[in-house]
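Reply to dn_fold:

You asked what the input looked like. This is it:
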Amino acid sequence: MKEIFRVDGLYYRLMTLAANAFIINLVFVLSGLTVVLLGPAIIALYQITKRVMAGEEDHVLTTYFKIMKKNLVRGWQLFGILLVGAGLAIGLTLLVGALGQWAAAVMIFFVASVALLLGTFAYDFALSQDSVRQAFNNALILFFQHIVYSIVILLIPVVVLSLIGKVNLYLALCLGFFVACYLQIYFVRKVGVFDE
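and this is what came back:
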């Protein structure tokens, strides 16, 4: 019984992971509410989650804010690109009504492609120090060579947040983003699509 509750025991590690997940998720949600900090918050979420997975991080709150401060400009670039991409997808979706039903299949394909590229781009840009151009090139390469990986990278957060949200919305707000990010990083490490 003593071995379970030791500092290096399973119980302590699981409770530390759960506490870190809650803190990271709460800070991400609060900083993401301010639209100006959403991009840096996404970068900080991915980078701190990667560090927690590697067991490198004990002071998640201070490190999260250091990462946000360090990546303010990159975060604004990320947010701007995601905003333009989402605006493009929404604009094209609205254009389908004006063009008629024959263009619906083409537009659905285009909107899905934009979503896949943006999801893959956001993942790569947040975890690497690549330029916007290099991260976009990586997203294009992954999209054309391994489209299934792009689909999984995009669907992990959607599925995780919707499943946890069905159980309890509060649980989704407390753990959902961290769990989704954790699973994305785990998946990418297992299939080895990005050089880390």
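The helical segments are 10-33, 38-54, 60-70, 72-99, 104-127, 132-145, 147-167, 169-191.
Hope that clears it up.
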